[in-house]
Design brief:
With about 350 residues, the chain is mainly α. The protein is about 65% helix and about 5% strand. It contains 16 helices and 5 strands. It has helices at about 5-10, 20-30, 45-50, 65-80, 95-100, 105-110, 115-130, 135-150, 155-170, 170-180, 190-220, 240-250, 260-265, 270-285, 295-335, 335-355, and strands at about 15, 35, 55-60, 85, 115. It has a 5-stranded mixed sheet, with helices on both faces. Helix 4 links the parallel strand 3 (about 55-60) and strand 4. The protein is elongated.
Length: about 350
Amino acid sequence: LDKAKLAIKEEGYCILVEGQMDYLALYSEGIKNVVATSGTALTINQLHILKRYTDVLYLFFDNDSAGFTATERTVELALNLGFDLKIIEIPESKDDADFIKIYPGQIKRYVDSAKKFMDFYFDRLFKNYNPEKIDDKKRIAGEILKKIKFLQNKIEQDYYIKKLSKKLEIGENVLLAAMADIKMNENPSYLALNEEQKAMENKLADRLKILEENIVGLIIKYCKFDILDEIDIEILSLPNIKELLIKIKENRTENFKFKLDDFKNKFSEDLNKFLDYLMFKIETQFEHLNNLENGKKERIITEEIKLGLNELKTNYFKNKISILRQEIEKAEKSGDTKKVFELLEEIKKLKEKTNF
């Protein structure tokens, strides 16, 4: 990923392959927006990392049963995170790297003609089963309805329900009723997704708490009050941190010098205790800075604060975009097209503002 992230942003999508040889084969063809799972099962955490760079994922797994199983699981996980998914298909060869070796210079056209993942499933199931037979008809409907239910966009859901209804000659209402009976939480992968998601959210919350405490603690301990103007209270989540910053901003003057003892009478008992804890934490965690010469120490402190602030801002705006996407879904359900376009425009502005 460290070699591919710039190419992913430039191209607007990421190609996901199974092994290192697949990765190297594509890279040798000049395709650099590619990452490999290195033969292991893809995790929700890895997909969250990929989503920082793109919402569009092309799956390019081996054309055999193991490859199809990997595709199935990845589709399920990625759809839950709102990825736009496509499948790259190649003829003849079961192994992606072998195909590229045998047919040099050909793979780019297969990448460019990658199918939307739902179209891929339609083609595959209608090819492998006979829709004239009732058992096959049920199998096709069951498999495709599971995938349709994972779609987050209601317009897409409606489109593929109509397509399935026409191809199977089954009423849309019947298919919708069958889809409603599919219990998402009975799927083991879906349960694993939720558990992993919760664990990751808890880890992120701990990380953000540490960042907030470090940023404000460093500002106070080393009197970096020139950075105060760069901090929007809105991006912070800890009440004590917010209160500290507000109090400092309220008492800041042109020649402001922060003296801890002078401020103690302005704070509540609880806030004073928190401030003592914060100063002890900073003194302990950044004790090594005291051995550095002043110029280097100042640079490191400033960089630590600004990097932390950037991470907090990025997380804040990503959460805002996530909330807006939920509002889009509600607006789609209610048929409020005007609201959908307004929200999409708001997301576009936020993405331009934050560069992700």
